[in-house]
Amino acid sequence: MDIYHVMRTTGAVRVFTGEPLPDETLTRILDNARFAPSGGNRQGTHVVAVRDPATLQALADLTDTGFRRYIAQQRHGESPWNPLHPMGVSADELAAVRVPRAAQLLDADVALVICVDLGVVAAFDQDLDRIGLVAGASVYPLVWNILLAARSEGFGGVLTTMVVPEEPKVKELLGIPGDYAIAAVVPLGKPVKQFTKLTRKPVSEFVTRERFDGPAF
After folding, report:
1. Region for residue 77 given its phi and psi (left: phi exceeds 0; alpha: psi -120 to 50; beta: otherwise)
2. Across the strands, what pairs with 210?
3. Which one in 2, 6, 142, 180 has a CA-CA gap of 20 to 30 Å to 148?
4. Does domain 3-52+107-205 have CATH number 3.40.50.1010?
5. Counting Cβ atoms within 10 Å, is residue 180 exposed (0-12), middle (13-18) or buried (19+)?
6. Which pairing describes strands 45-50 and 180-189: parallel, antiparallel, or unpaired?
7. What span, in angstroms and rounded, lies between the C-alpha atoms of 137 and 38?
8. DSSP-derived 3-state class of residue 137
9. Per-residue pLDDT tens listing for the chain (217 residues)
10. What is the dihedral of CA 61, 62, 65, 68, to 10 degrees?
11. DSSP string, 138-187
12. DSSP at 193
């Protein structure tokens, strides 16, 4: 499959048919995805492939905290989990939110829990007065490669982070060492509907020449 076609049609897949994703295919996906770059080529990622229904249910339960705040803030007209704007939702409003079934996890054939060893990342932004982002450069290229490879194989998935607020409990559930961070959970399966076209901003709307306030590229 043409690489540009894959890039333009790899959408967020959250609804699956239930068709199995064989270990052989998953191995091929991961075998190609592993060539993603990482800082210093340290390759500090670890992937836990979860198929056990009980463990998937436990992971789904641990998304409740993330979903509850996300939904409550969205209803309140806020940008959910935004680091610059404090949450204005009350505890009672949070408690009143009914969390939907985490179908994207429970109906997936496998969920990949993507971890990164914080002992080998170079967080160049660690002393800046903002949320750290740079360490993600050592893990998110792998996540995206997994999704591209899955698309090429006729499967799909989505990068989710709803379990991260409950990271200590996820670590206990899966035996993840203390020095590792959970970067994403990626459910994979056969899409009910395969994307053929995605909608994105044109280049001229997000690329400028020479400066942030420079002319459109």
Report:
1. left
2. none
3. 180
4. no
5. middle
6. unpaired
7. 7
8. helix
9. 899 999 999 999 999 999 999 999 999 999 999 999 999 999 999 999 999 999 999 999 999 999 999 999 999 999 999 999 999 999 999 999 999 999 999 999 999 999 999 999 999 999 999 999 999 999 999 999 999 999 999 999 999 999 999 999 999 999 999 999 999 999 999 999 988 889 999 999 999 999 999 999 9
10. -30
11. GTHHHHHHHHHHHHHTT-EE--B-TTGGGHHHHHHHHT--TTEEEEEEEE
12. S
Single-letter amino acid, residue 82 = N
What the block records as the tokens of 149 is 């490879």
Q: At which residue do the structure tokens 């994979």 appear?
A: 188
Structure-block tokens of residue 11: 């959408």
Token pair belonging to 84: 């610059």
